[in-house]
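In this supplementary section we document a worked example of the pipeline. Step one takes a protein sequence of length 204 as its only input; no multiple sequence alignment statistics are reported here. Step two produces a three-dimensional model, which step three serialises into structure tokens for compact storage. The input and output of this example are shown verbatim.
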Amino acid sequence: MQPNTSQRSTVSLDQQHEAQIQAITVSTVPTPNPDALMFRLEEALVPVGTYEYSDAATAQTDSPLAARLLEIGGVELVLIAPRFVTVRKLEDARWPDIVPLIKRALREFVWSGEMAVFDTRVGPVGDDHSEVEKRILTLIEEDIRPALAQDGGDVTYVGFEAGIVHLRMIGACGSCPSATATLKMGIEALLMEEIPEVEGVAQV
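The serialised model returned by step three reads:
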């Protein structure tokens, strides 16, 4: 029996839908953390900043994309940046099992046109920061964060007290074996060299 016109039309639309999804480029990039992978996209997911989620309940409210990825078995944490997503897996999970599911979820989400994150974040340098803090934040934004982003990580500024800059490493950097070295030899060295008031850096 020959399929009727409506059946042929439905099949054709399904094929077009699948072709459009598969055409969305998602590149996998390794990070220094064996339990974290970076997934690069050509489409911008958020205008600026990074957003980290490990709690499914919070993600359901704040980030449709993170909520979808955290539903995948073995996914422990999601970091969303403008043109990449870092996924950290549970130690006993296997990348070959979950990478295809992550890529499929990312492609379908980009195709849907949904907002990745419900947030209206403003810039990090505000009037409520001291002059030293403004210099610290500028250095973090212009030099440190772009460098960390290359490895699928990021850093958030927590505060500056008694000469110590308090930071939180997130994304691939959050549980990376080399995070301490990055913090001390990279971030601390740069901040102390460029800003005399900085005496050290501590991770919180």
